[in-house]
Structure formats: C-alpha cells, structure tokens
Design a protein that fits this description.
single chain, alpha/beta, Rossmann fold, 8 helices, about 15% strand, globular, binds NADP nicotinamide-adenine-dinucleotide phosphate
C-alpha cells in the first residue's frame, strides 16, 4: 500500500488532502505541530505524528517514525496579510522559515530514501498569488515565488533519480482558517495611511465569486501525486484556473 506524508494536517487543505488519500486506500501519515486526529477520518491506515517543519529535530524524529514514504506533500504554511510598511520583518523571517526553508528541509529529509529506491513524488503547495500579484500580500507572495523557483530547479535534480517534484497553486479559500491564522500569528497592524486602500481591496477580493474549496486542492494534489504526466504547475480551484490561463499557462 503506498504511503504519503502530509505536513500541516491540523486544519484546512492538509485535512482534505489526508481524507482524499485515505479514501483512495493509501496509508496516510498526517503530521502537525500539536498532534490530534480531530477533523481527520477514522482509519487504521491513518498515522498522526508530531512535526514542526522549522525544527530539524522534529523533522528527523517524524521521518524516523514514518518509515517508507512514497509521497511527501509540503502543505504547512503561514500567511501574512499586510502592506510592507505594516509588516514586521522578524515575522517575515518566521514566515520564510516555514513556507520556504521548511519545505526544503522536508524534501532533503525524504530524498535519500526516494533516491535510493528511484521512486517518489514531492508536491509543494504554493499559491495562485504567484500568478497574479495582489496587494497586502507581498511577503507571503515572495515566499511562495521562492517555493516555486526552488521546486522547479530541485525537480531537475530529483528527476535524475526517478523522483518527481510538482507544484500545486490553490486559489483563495476563505473556508480554511488560513486568513484568521495569518492575522492571529503575524498581526495586521495596517498603517493608517493605507487603511482605506486595504479595506477596499479586501472587500472587493472577498466579493469575487470564484473561490477555491479544500476539496479542489485535495483532488489536484491527488493528480500531482498519481499522474506521472501531470505538468510542473497545477492550479487548484476555479479562481486559480482563471488566473492560470490569464498568466498564459494552458490548463491540461
Ligand atoms: N487558504 C488559502 O486561501 C490558500 C491559498 C493558496 C495557498 N494556500 C496554502 O495552502 C497551505 C495550507 O493552507 P490552509 O488554507 O489549509 O491554512 P491553515 O488552515 O491555516 O493550515 C495551515 C497548516 O500549516 C500548519 N503549520 C504552520 N506552521 C507550521 C510549522 N512550522 N510546522 C508544521 N506545520 C505548520 C498549521 O498548523 P498549526 O495548527 O500547528 O499552526 C496548519 O495545519 C499553506 O501552505 C498555504 O500557504 C492557502
């Protein structure tokens, strides 16, 4: 039975991805900083492990406990909603530690075994903000653009050993805790001069009719893992698909 390790399974996309793979008969190692099976389907093919992607010891312990991993999904991520002038640069470093260096560290951790077996797939959950720039997201967007560049270069090295690396670009999914978590963890102290601009922008953004559901992301991650012909970048969600086409990519 194939085995997948997913990061950031305490909520949102991570839970939906775990449910998708359990549903398809895979063994799922659902990892999160504070382990709990809440929100995940009950299954004897589900293993819940602690994992903080910014902590090398935590990564080593999770990889040792997980056993063979056929697919890794780097889903853990944090957001930051603020204009640059309102953003805390220390927190921006923390965000890059999770969104970029965390994914790199995880790929490094699974690679020796995948390389030896000449088999495996690593899917990095990026964002459609790398397709269409949006205000008040410059630091977050920079982290996901870095994740894209990392994945596209790393994929060339990994392919040499039969290991695939792919990117999934979800659109905006207000149904997850992402926005709330971003504000709770990273603050949102918008400078007064930008207040009206930021408010008007978020109002127009939230009223957009096309949105992404967690199930869209789970299905696209499924494709990225199981379809060897899947392209490097896969949009997930109706809004992401529109932006993907507008950015000049053909959806396939
Ligand atoms: N929602 C959107 O609109 C959207 C759009 C495009 C892309 N994305 C991306 O999709 C991914 C999942 O987002 P989501 O919407 O499902 O948000 P979410 O509900 O906030 O989930 C984020 C997950 O990442 C985990 N996480 C944060 N820091 C971590 C760390 N250091 N180590 C391990 N896990 C960590 C969180 O765990 P804790 O509970 O421990 O904090 C949580 O499980 C992220 O990479 C995000 O950037 C989201």
């Amino acid at each position: 039975m194939p085995r997948i390790l997913i990061t950031g399974c305490s909520s949102g996309f991570g839970q939906a991805i775990a449910a998708q793979f359990l549903d398809q008969g895979w063994e799922v190692i659902a990892t999160m900083r504070n382990p709990s099976a809440e929100g995940l389907p009950q299954s004897d093919r589900l293993q819940v492990l602690p994992l903080d992607v910014t902590d090398p010891e935590s990564i080593a312990a999770a990889i040792a406990a997980a056993g063979q991993i056929d697919a890794l999904v780097n889903n853990a991520g944090v957001g930051m909603l603020n204009v640059l002038e309102g953003a805390d640069i220390g927190r921006a470093r923390e965000l890059f530690e999770t969104n970029v260096l965390g994914a790199m560290a995880m790929a490094r951790a699974v690679m020796p075994d995948m390389r030896a077996r000449r088999s495996g797939v690593i899917v990095n959950v990026s964002s459609s903000v790398t397709l269409r720039p949006l205000p008040a997201l410059s630091i977050y967007s920079a982290s996901k653009a870095a994740l894209n560049a990392f994945t596209e270069s790393f994929a060339l090295e990994a392919a040499e050993f039969g290991v695939r690396a792919r990117l999934v670009l979800p659109g905006s999914a207000p149904s997850t805790s992402f926005g709330r978590n971003a504000v709770a963890r990273m603050g949102m102290d918008v400078p007064e001069a930008y207040g009206a601009f930021v408010q008007a922008y978020f109002q127009s953004h939230m009223s957009a009719t096309e949105k992404t559901q967690a199930s869209d992301v789970a299905q696209v991650v499924w494709r990225a893992v199981t379809d060897e012909t899947a392209p490097m970048k896969l949009p997930a969600g109706a809004d992401a698909e529109t932006w993907f086409r507008e950015a000049g990519f053909a959806t396939a």
